[in-house]
Prior knowledge:
about 200 residues, alpha/beta, D-Maltodextrin-Binding Protein, domain 2, 2 domains, 7-stranded mixed β-sheet, 7 helices, 9 strands
Amino acid sequence: MVEGRKGDVHVLTVRSVASGTLPSSAARWHSLFPSTVLRLHDFSHRRDLEEAVLGGRGDIAVGPRPVSWDGPVVSLGYEEIVAIRPAEHPSDTAVEPAEPAKADWVLYEQEQGMSEVVDQMATHCGFTPRAVARTGQASAALLFAVEGVGLAVVPENAIPLQWARHVRSNGPGSYRELVAFRRKRPPSQLAARHQDMLTPLSNCR
C-alpha cells in the first residue's frame, strides 16, 4: 500500500467509455499491477459522472470533457462518433449528406449521454431525427442498427471488430474529446499511476 503497488483504484466513467475505451487499458494495468483491484463505476450521462466526482466518489474519472470544471483535467484524445446501418460498406465510406434526414433512427433515452451527442449532430446538420426506437445503451443501439431497425450513431471504440463492416463516418467526421479529471485533492499513488497510463489512450485519436 505504501509503495503504491497494492490496493483498489476506483475509476468513474460513462457506459460507452466503459465498454469501448477502457478494457484495453484495464488489461495493461493488470499486467503492470497484478496485486491491485480496478473498480469501475459507470454512469449513463456525463452529468451524473460529474456529480459523482464532485460528491467525492472515485479516485479518477474518465469521460467527455466536463463543463466548467474546477479541478485537474487531462486530455486523452478524441474518439470518433460513427454511423451504423445494416448494409456493409468499405471502411472509408461516409454517410451521404441527405441520408440522416431521410432515415429512421434508433435514438437514445434522454438520460443517456449519447442523446446529447445525437442532438448536437442533428442541430448542426439542420434536421430532426425520426425515431423508430429508443434505448439507454450504446450496445443495444448498435444491435438494433445492424438488424435494420434504423440508423444509429455510436462511439467507434465501442464497436466490436465483427461489426466494423457496418461502420460509416459522419460526413467529414464527428469526434468527442475524452479526458481524465478529478477533484483538486492530490490523488493516491495508484490513481496517479493509472492516470499516467491513460495519457493518451491508445485507441483514441
